Amino acid sequence: MIDIHKLVRKNIKKLIPYQSARRIKGNGDIWLNANESPFEQQKNFFFNNLNRYPDKEYKLLLKSYSNYTKISYKNIIATRGSDEAIELLIKAFCEPKKDSIMIFPPTYDMYQVYANILNVKVISILQLKNFQIDLKNLKKFIKNTKLIYLCNPNNPTGTLINHKDIIEILKFTKNKCLVVIDEAYIEFCFKNTVVDLMCKFDHLIILRTLSKAFGLASIRCGFILAHIEVINIIKKIIAPYPLSTPTLQIARFFLSKNNLILLKNNILELKKNKKILIQELKKLFYVKKIFSSSTNFILVFFHSSKQVFSQLLKYKVVTRDQNFKILLQNCIRISVGTYKECINLINIFKIIKIK
Q1: 317 by DSSP, 3-state: which?
Q2: Are 73 and 66 in contact (CB under 8 A)?
Q3: Contact between 314 and 174 (Cβ < 8 Å)
């Protein structure tokens, strides 16, 4: 039998894979660990022409998203979720073992995972205690950096980066590297998007997804918004026909005018649910702090997150333990669910036994 370990790349042998919310063990009735929308889509679809490659449908999706973002479809590429966008950018711009990406933990893990897979160095600069970017060290360690990844609002903290800091970073990095701002959760705080800065800074790249506010996590559809020269580079390496006909048609349907109204209503409802959840959590003696959140999830600092996490699992409530992450000891990330889910969660919090 072949010894596969003799053939695999050395960096892949050592790689610690990303543990997605669904890969982490846990049986539950209330799933609050993946930052998904809790609202199920009611539309049923039937697809035609599945024997044809969906080139035309792909172009139509770009135009639909162009109408939504108010930027030219020529500055947009649709990808298999924003995760693929993260990978494509590293593939396109970073020389293995030579170039680096820069990240600011605690943040989304896939920036580092893809860099590790592609054998690209990672410069990690801890966020400040208020979860803002350490500009001083950013400037100090930028040498050989090709891509700076900023998650805004940030996952898993839910916090926003100061707008003036984003401007300062863009000014400092001009002609040095590309700045990638991941706006996966921007629909929950849309006034904070930096799309308007694209016309001023041609090295700014924005990532988007339909997985969160749009409630389409299962179709795996994301977008890269960038200067035309960046788009043309990504076109060289992206797979032909990257999205399936079902994905393209569903995505276009939910970008229609009527569904954008539904999107806004769902966001308003989630914000109301989040407010109720925060108010009730503040009453619990074992909650030390609830961090400010501009997203569909909250980060909660407990006296003992291990006890809380295990007690919630006993009641089949699945949350996301952040205790292992730097700066987030004793923290749990909780996605905001439906009103019913939030009330059930609050009632469970009141009866669980925490020492």
Answers
A1: strand
A2: yes
A3: no
d(CA 59, CA 142): 37
Q: Which of 293, 43, 83, 103 is nearest to 209 (CA)?
A: 83
Q: Is the pTM of this model over 0.85?
A: yes
Give me the helix-helix angle, 81-93 and 110-117, nearest 10°. Answer: 40
The full set of domains in the chain, from first to last, is 4-39+259-351 (3.90.1150.10), 55-257 (3.40.640.10)
Please enumerate in sequence order all residues whose Cβ is within 8 A of that of 299, keeping only pairs 6 or more positions apart, or say none: 156, 157, 158, 290, 291, 293, 322, 328, 331, 332, 333, 334
CA proximity to 255, closest of 69, 82, 53: 69
Distance (Å, rounded) from C-alpha 71 to C-alpha 17? 35
C-alpha atoms less than 13 angstroms from C-alpha of 353 in its C-beta half-sphere: 1
C-alpha 116/C-alpha 12 separation (Å) is 8
What is the model's pLDDT at position 268? 97
Question: Within 10 A of 52 (CB to CB), how many other CB atoms are there?
Answer: 11
**Residue range 314-327, pLDDT digits in tens:** 999 999 999 999 99
337, burial (CB in 10 Å: exposed 0-12, middle 13-18, buried 19+) = buried
Q: H/E element holding 124?
A: strand 121-124
Which of 297, 345, 304, 310 shows the shortest CA–CA distance to 323?
Answer: 304
Q: Distance between CA 117 and CA 308 in Å, rounded?
A: 34
What's the pLDDT score for residue 288? Answer: 97
